Amino acid sequence: QVQLVESGGGLVQAGGSLRLSCAASGRSFSTYVMAWFRQAPGKEREFVAAINWSGSSTHDADSVKGRFTISRDNAKTTVYLQMNSLKPEDTAVYYCAARASVVFGSVTHESAYAYWGQGTPVTVSS
């Protein structure tokens, strides 16, 4: 079992930055694919970014490429999402997700992840 706790959300002006953190408890964090998803008001949850077990491979949604960076620190069992050049359309609840796999495939599918955090809200004002 893995428990995920997100933090770092808040209110920021357009063009600003935030760094989200997701602290994981449980064994074998270093063998998990980790990802961030988000859900805007009235919309379905969507993929944002994913990172493989070692941090050597990442995949970003087109909407955040060049602005968001996912990273992880296996010693601290934490995954991060650095968000720069934020836009009002980035406003959403951001969720951390995990799955036990060393295979980095199908990372954009919600159904591929067994564990989810409770979410942290991000609001970007114009």
Walkthrough of the structure:
This protein has 126 residues and is an all-beta fold. Helix content is 0%, strand content 50%. The chain contains no helices and 11 strands. It has strands spanning 3-7, 10-13, 18-25, 32-39, 46-51, 58-60, 68-73, 78-83, 92-100, 115-116, 120-125. The strands form 2 sheets. Strands 2, 4, 5, 6, 9, 10 and 11 form a 7-stranded mixed β-sheet that branches. A hairpin with a 4-residue loop joins strand 7 and strand 8. It starts with a strand and ends with a strand.
Q: How much is the radius of gyration in Å?
A: 13 Å
Number of strands: 11
Largest sheet: 7 strands, mixed
Average pLDDT over all residues? 95
Supply the number of helical segments. Answer: 0
Kindly report how far apart the N and C termini lie. 40 Å
Tell me the β content: over 45%
Low-confidence stretches: none
Order of helices and strands: EEEEEEEEEEE
Helix-strand makeup class:
mainly beta
**What best-fitting shape do the alpha-carbon axes yield?**
globular
Residues in helix, %: under 10%
Helix/strand layout:
Blueprint: E1 3-7, E2 10-13, E3 18-25, E4 32-39, E5 46-51, E6 58-60, E7 68-73, E8 78-83, E9 92-100, E10 115-116, E11 120-125
Parallel strand pairs: 2-11
Antiparallel strand pairs: 1-3, 3-8, 4-5, 4-9, 5-6, 7-8, 9-10, 9-11
